[in-house]
TrEMBL record, chain A:
Keywords: 2Fe-2S, Iron, Iron-sulfur, Metal-binding, Oxidoreductase. One of its GO terms (molecular function) is oxidoreductase activity. This is (2Fe-2S)-binding protein. CDD domains: fer2. Residues 20-96 form the 2Fe-2S ferredoxin-type domain. Pfam families: Fer2, Fer2_2. Gene3D superfamilies: 3.10.20.30, [2Fe-2S]-binding domain. PROSITE patterns: 2FE2S_FER_1, 2FE2S_FER_2.
UniProtKB/TrEMBL annotation, chain B:
SMART domains: CO_deh_flav_C. SUPFAM superfamilies: CO dehydrogenase flavoprotein C-terminal domain-like, FAD-binding/transporter-associated domain-like. This is Xanthine dehydrogenase. PANTHER family: XANTHINE DEHYDROGENASE SUBUNIT C-RELATED. Keywords: FAD, Flavoprotein, Oxidoreductase. GO terms for molecular function: FAD binding; oxidoreductase activity. Gene3D superfamilies: 3.30.465.10, CO dehydrogenase flavoprotein, C-terminal domain. Residues 8-178 form the FAD-binding PCMH-type domain. InterPro entries: CO_DH_flav_C, CO_DH_flav_C_dom_sf, Diverse_Substr_Oxidored, FAD-bd_PCMH, FAD-bd_PCMH-like_sf, FAD-bd_PCMH_sub2, Mopterin_DH_FAD-bd.
């Protein structure tokens, strides 16, 4: 069993106001929060911790605007409740930025992978997830990976080009 | 950093995180209808959003590691209820089961599949996997308040004694060893991008002997709001026959009669029945016309 989650193993950590003591790491920073156990991760991030990179659109797992990583796995922050992320490591789009912007962000800029930008943080998280498991995806792989991310502006052409440019460049580097 | 947030919702449920099946069952016994099991909670959240009342006690199964086990023994694939829909990406035993992988890939999108579970898909009662599991002769290992049972999924679905207190521990799926005398299919028809549930899902499995006589036929429909169902009368029309002997017109109309397809403002029940019959007949013919009749033989409906 994952010891990191023991904090809420015991239901008596719930106090009368039905809050839980939530410990989690977000973009390498540790937090200890007293929260409603069913508050959505996306609300926690945006409304309380001011991490507004992940966006909310559908609020129910259909559009991918809220995509983040939990322990390195792609998830919809609008479909996760606080009790489900206790002890976990969360990465938001803000966590990708180092000294320079991430290569996926760079590719989106170069290939015109966005217009209004509302879907972009979710797209980039999804693309990062895809490339981490499949560095040289086919167009079919790309479409399948993006099945849960909606964009109302681009028609997806620039997004797919951006991903293909990365896939190709990775192959070139490997050679 | 320590934060204290205001604005608690009045109906926040109590969250329980048992670490064993027994603890989970005890909690369910204690709170009865006021408690609900939650695995990935992806379906539950969709239902709450659509107005379903949240239970007062939520018994999360996520900490029960025994529910995550996947094993293959004596040609039976045992899939722990907490196995995620996305498990085909990294679990080698699931990866090897091609039809199961194909079905898993049709459910939701990758990020939802990373959270939603196979057990939740079955116990939610409307999951797209149910027709596949019906066709594949799946058995459920169910832990009830006082005892455990292993039950055929179809028997379970028809069992009117279900109390809602039962916990699904694992699903057992026979794995075919001789693929030359067996054929299975799974097809989902949906319009995912329009945010609607599947129009329908069909699945089937047939096996035949050395003379090409069908000796196992399982056909199932479901998906979306359609009640999952085995097409037992249609199965009888096929069982014991070779491809040559099958009356395809009768099979087609039997499917349309047996399938209680739902109707909504956009898609009629008749239309769904037709799609189901077309898909199932086409799949069966694709195999039976080639394996028992030689290539090029075309039946007309
Ligand atoms: C955006 C989106 C798209 C979706 N698309 C599809 C789709 O294409 N096809 C499809 O079939 N589904 C779809 N779903 C529904 C859902 O994601 C899946 O059915 C998923 O498999 C449910 O698993 P879960 O672990 O989240 O279940 P939960 O929500 O945790 O539980 C579902 C139900 O099963 C019960 N339950 C869960 N586990 C157990 C157990 N071990 N024992 C007893 N009872 C249990 C719960 O009490 C609850 O009633 C979608 C959901 C979303 C949000
Ligand atoms: S806001 Fe989370 S998927 Fe749409
Ligand atoms: S760039 Fe506007 S929604 Fe995608």
């Amino acid at each position: 069993m994952d010891m990191k989650n023991r904090v809420i193993d015991n239901p008596f950590t719930l106090n009368e106001g039905q809050t839980i003591a939530l410990k989690l790491t977000i973009n390498d920073e540790q937090y200890e929060l007293q929260v409603n156990p069913t508050i959505k991760l996306i609300n926690l991030l945006r409304d309380h911790l001011n991490l507004i990179g992940p966006k909310v659109s559908c609020g129910i797992g259909r559009c991918g605007a809220c995509s983040v990583f939990v322990d390195g796995v792609l998830v919809n922050a609008c479909l996760l409740m606080a009790y489900q992320v206790n002890g976990k490591h969360i990465t938001t789009i803000e966590g990708l930025v180092g000294v320079t912007i991430d290569e996926v962000q760079q590719a989106f800029l170069k290939e015109g992978g966005f217009q209004c930008g509302y879907c972009t943080s979710g797209m980039i998280m999804t693309v990062k997830s895809l490339l981490s498991t499949n560095p040289d995806p086919t167009e079919a792989d790309i479409k399948e990976a993006l099945a849960g991310n909606l964009c109302r502006c681009t028609g997806y052409g620039g997004i797919i080009r951006a991903i293909q440019s990365l896939a190709k460049s990775k192959v070139a580097v490997q050679e | 950093m320590v934060y204290q947030f205001d604005g608690l919702e009045p109906k926040t449920p109590f969250i329980w995180m048992p670490v064993t099946v027994e603890e989970a069952i005890d909690l369910k016994k204690q709170f009865g209808i006021e408690a609900e099991f939650a695995s990935g909670a992806t379906l539950l959240q969709l239902q709450w959003m659509n107005g379903r009342k949240m239970a007062q006690h939520l018994i999360s199964l996520e900490q029960i590691s025994s529910l995550k086990e996947v094993k293959l023994k004596n040609n039976v694939l045992s899939i722990g209820a907490l196995t995620t829909l996305g498990s085909y990406q990294n679990n080698s035993l699931i990866k090897e089961n091609v039809i199961l992988c194909n079905a898993l890939k049709t459910i939701a999108a990758p990020a939802v599949r990373n959270r939603g579970t196979i057990g939740g898909n079955v116990m939610g009662g409307i999951g797209d996997l149910i027709p596949l599991l019906l066709a594949m002769e799946a058995k459920l290992y169910i832990q009830g308040p006082n005892s455990s049972i292993i039950v055929d999924l179809w028997d379970w679905l028809q069992n009117k004694q279900i109390t809602g207190n039962e916990l699904l521990v694992k699903i057992e799926l026979p794995v075919e060893v001789n693929e030359k005398t067996c054929f299975s299919f799974y097809r989902k028809i949906g319009r995912r991008e329009t945010f609607t549930a599947a129009i329908l899902t069909v699945s089937g499995k047939i096996k035949w002997d050395e003379k090409g006589v069908l000796n196992i036929v399982r056909l199932a429909v479901g998906g979306g709001d359609n009640e999952p169902k085995r097409l037992e009368k249609t199965e009888q029309l096929l069982n014991g026959k070779t491809g040559e002997e099958i009356n395809w017109k009768a099979v087609y109309s039997s499917i349309t009669n047996e399938f209680n397809a739902v109707e909504d403002s956009f898609i009629s029940s008749e239309y769904r029945k037709k799609i189901a019959a077309n898909l199932i007949v086409a799949e069966l013919k694709s195999k039976l016309t080639i394996s028992s009749q030689g290539e090029g033989h075309i039946y007309e409906i």
